[in-house]
Amino acid sequence: MRMVLLGAPGAGKGTHCKRIVDQYGLLHLSSGDILRRERAEGSELGKQAQGYMDAGALVPDDLIVEMMSKAVKAAPASGYVLDGFPRTVNQAEALDRSLEDGDAGIDVVMNLLVDDGVVVERITGRRSCPQCGAVYHVVNMPPKQEGVCDHDGAALVQRPDDTAEVVKNRLATYYEQTKPVVDYYRARRTVHDVDGNADADAVAALLFEKLDALKG
Ligand code: AP5
What DSSP string describes 31-80? Predict the structure, then answer.
């Protein structure tokens, strides 16, 4: 299964991709995670992306398309779930061009719908583990011990782009540049909308129900 999971910042794409990966054995290809890894390694791409990410703006299409095309080409035959990509119509077109069978090369497009107020509350309360990447929320999904990762005991950190001010920019960027990607897919295929406002178990149940029905 080759899948695209769309949604605003903080909609729960990363949280639910992890569950989808466990349930269906897909590879998680998150453009945000790949960029954060590049930054941590101090690569040229990471340095180029840093200013855009910290301001809540998009990294230029040419850099992203090259990075994600490589990741998609290297993905296993069992399939993948794309998270955070494509994020502009240019990126969606480039993805279609890079797939052997064009837009038929993507089997499922899901779109997580979350209210803006929920987005702000989720993002400003997010904490993540710098070692294993586990994601928590100070209220909704707290770790067993405050500030400490359940899996490896590392001190949890807040992403530099998770402040209230940057979230405003990320949301504006989403409406300007990423929402048109939803329309791009709707014009070509079925987009499965999923209400992402509920708690994570309820949202996962909705996603799995749709995915199981599509798998047949
Ligand atoms: P990226 O890392 O992709 O960030 P994003 O799209 O803004 O998404 P987030 O990671 O913030 O949120 P999410 O939807 O994964 O939510 P999560 O599951 O963590 O991109 C970062 C930056 O990189 C961009 O701003 C840009 O600069 C650059 N970039 C990346 N891709 C790019 C591209 N293609 N083109 C150009 N630039 C690109 O959940 C959020 C919080 O809510 C967590 O704390 C979680 O525990 C909690 N939570 C989740 N679901 C629920 C629920 N149902 N109930 C309660 N709490 C929940």
Answer: HHHHHHHHHHHT-HHHHHHHHHHHHTPPPPHHHHHHHHHHHHHTS-TT-E
